[in-house]
Amino acid sequence: MSPSSADLLARANAASAGGNWSQVLDCLQQLLARDDEAPGDRHGGTTAAIALQLTLDSLANGDFRQRWEATKLLPYFGEAAIAPLLVWIGDRAVDGELRWFAVRAATDLLRHPVSSQTRTTTIAALANLLAAEEDDDLRDAATSALAELGEGAIDILAELMQEPQSRRLAVRAIAQIQHPRVVEPLLAAIADPDVEVRAIAWEAAIALDDPRLPSLLLKALDDPSARVRRQGAIGLGLWAARGSLDDRLPECDLVRRLRDRLWDLNLEVCQQAAIALGRLDSPAAAAALSELFAAETTPMPLKLAAVRALGWMSVPEAVDALQGAIQLCCRGGNEGEKLPAAFAAEIAAVLGRQSESPLRERAAEVLVALLDADPRTRPESAEVKKAIVLGLGELGDSRAIEPSIRLLADPDASVRLHAIAALKRLDPERTYQRLQERAADPTIAPDLREGIAIALQEWHR
Asked: 113, 177, 444, 454: most buried by Cβ count inside 10 Å?
C-alpha cells in the first residue's frame, strides 16, 4: 500500500531535520505527483506551504544536483514560490550558486500564469542584477533570463542601456529578443561609442528588415572595429540575397565599398566582403573578386571564399574570372610557382556546379580546354584532373567525351576510375559507341587500349 500524503510529508520533515536532502526531495516528488492531491492545495493550504518550505530548504542547503532537482519541483507551487526566490536574488550575503539557481527558477516560473505585479517585480529584480551586481556569472544569468522573457523586458532593458555599467549586458539581452519593438533600441546602440556595444547591436540588427539599415551598413564597413566591419559586410550580403538593395544603394558605390574591404587587415572581414560581392551577382562584383587571384599577398582562405562567391553568380564574367584563376594555378603565379592543387580542384568543382544553361556551356568549354591544353599548362595533379573530369560529368557536355577518354590512359588509377564515371554521364549511347571505335583502332597506345577495355567492362555495371 502506498504511503499517504501525511506520511510522505512526515518523512520529508524527518529527513530535513537530519539534513538528508535527497530523501526530502524523493518524498516531495512522490507527494506532488499524487493524483489524489487536490490541485488547489498545491498552490495554497497547509500541505502546500510545508512542501514549498521543504523544497526551498533543499534548494538552500543541498548540493548542486539536489538544487537542480529542487528547482524542478517549484512549478508545482506556482506564483507562491517566486517571492522567496526574489529575496535570495537580491541578497548579496547568499552564496552565488544559490542566487544563480534562484534566477533560473524565477525565470522558469514566469512561463506560468502569474499576476502582472509579480511579473513586474521579478523583471525589476533581474534588471537590478545587471545594474548593480558584481558577480559576472549572476549578471550573465540575469541577461539570459531577461532575453527569455521577451517583450515584457524590452522597456526596462532600454532603460538599462542608458547606464554605462549595464549597457553591454542590456544590449546583449535585447539583441536576443525577436520583437518589432527592439528595432529602435538596437538602431540607437549601433552608434554607441563603446565598441562592444556596437558589435553586439550589429550582430542582431543585420537581421532587421528596416529601410534605414542599408545606408547604416555601408557606414559600418568603415568602423574602427573589425567585428562591426564584418557585420556590415554580412548585412549587405543578406540584403543583396533578398534582392532588397536595388533601389536603396547605387551598385557602383556598393561594389566599390565592398571591394575596399577585400583588402581589410582582418581576414574574416575580407571573406564576408567576398561573400557579399558574390550575392550582388553583377559583372562589376565579379571583376572585384577576380583581382584577388593575381595578388601574391592574398591568403588562400580568401581566394577560396572568392571562388565560392563567383560560383553563386549567374553572370558570364564570373565564369571568366574562374577560368583566369584556374589557368593561373596551372601555369604558375606571378613568380612562376604553381598554386596548391586543392585550390585548382575547388575551382574545377565550382565550375562543374554551374546551373544556368549558358554558363554550363561556358564552364564545360573552360574545363575541356584545360585537358586539351599544351603540356606545359595542362594540369599535372591527379586531384585536379579528378575534379575536372567530375565537373565535366556534372555538366554533361558531349565535348568532354574525347578528353575524358584520353584520361583512361592516366597513370593514376583513381583518375581513370573518375574518367569512367564521368563518361557514363556524357551521352551514354554516343560515348559507348566511341569507346568501341577507339578500342578497334590498332594505332592507339597500349595504356589507352587497356583503359578503354576496363571502361567497356565496367560500362553496364
From this structure: 177
